[in-house]
Amino acid sequence: MGQTRYVAVFTSPPGPKDLGHPAGGGRGAVQIITLTTDFGHSDYYVGALKGVILSLAPKVQVVDITHEIEPHGLLHAAFVLRSVWSWFPPETVHLAIVDPGVGTSRRVLAGRYEGRFVVAPDNGLVTFLHRELRAEAMHVVENPRFFLPHVSGTFQGRDVLAPVAAHLTLGAKLRDFGRATDRVEVFPLPLRPAVTARGVSGQVLYVDRFGTLVTNIARTSLLALGTHDRQFEVLVNGTSIGPIRGTFGEVPVGEPVAFIGSTEHLEVAVNQGRAVDRFGPVERTRIEVR
């Protein structure tokens, strides 16, 4: 999967908005910080993040989304971040750390999309948020007052991003962290499915732990063709696997099945098997709906 990105320009640049949590959380609400990383669980990294957050904001609720993003899997993380975004209450701070460019000139962002905050490296992690949600503000994190006293060149998630997320729950405003920006890095437009008179063609966004192929073909892309989901034929690498079905058990064990998953995207699975093993490298897997 290519990692090329381009810089998106806000249609309406986020202005100097005074956005942030009320000091102390306001209205007695429990503040939430979610964590999405590629750190895994065999090292101390996740524990260090939580330690920093809870040392600064001991009343915050830390929620692990996942720490099993494929190492350096920016596109996977971007999709997961969008998939959980709206399930959390307004004012939630989503901290996403997949950072192959750590310690370089890559920027760190703190922003807000439709009432929820994101703190993440500027490397494409906000791609799906930026395409599908209304951006209310975006700032570059550059004020060292909010960092830990010593900033590691290789673990800025702990020393920069985690304390910024914690300070957001304590009443800091986005403008406190640095200047507003109207540009963020996102993955390129071909990640959108191609819609033609014949149907829709797309690609695999990521593979979940069951080996299911999650595609970039959303239900809305199919509805635009004006035909009910179950009347479509799905082809993988040019071979038909039948119509879009409702669930795995509608085909025999070991057979491939296509369905609209819980993220409202087309998925391809093998009933009690692994589609990724059946269909080969995801970079070359072609998905068509006709």
Descriptive report:
The protein is α+β, with helices and mostly antiparallel strands and 290 residues long. 20% of the residues lie in helices and 29% in strands. It has seven helices and 17 strands. The strands form three sheets. A nine-stranded mixed sheet has the order 9-10-17-13-14-15-16-12-11. A six-stranded mixed sheet has the order 3-2-4-6-5-7, sandwiched between helices. Strand 11 (204-207) and strand 12 (213-218) form a beta hairpin. It starts with 5 loop residues before the first strand and ends with a strand. The model is unreliable at 23-28 (pLDDT under 50).
Write a concise synopsis of the structure shown.
It contains 7 helices and 17 strands. By secondary structure, it is an alpha+beta fold.
Features:
single chain; 290 residues; alpha+beta; Rossmann fold; Elongation Factor Tu (Ef-tu), domain 3; 9-stranded mixed β-sheet; 17 strands; elongated
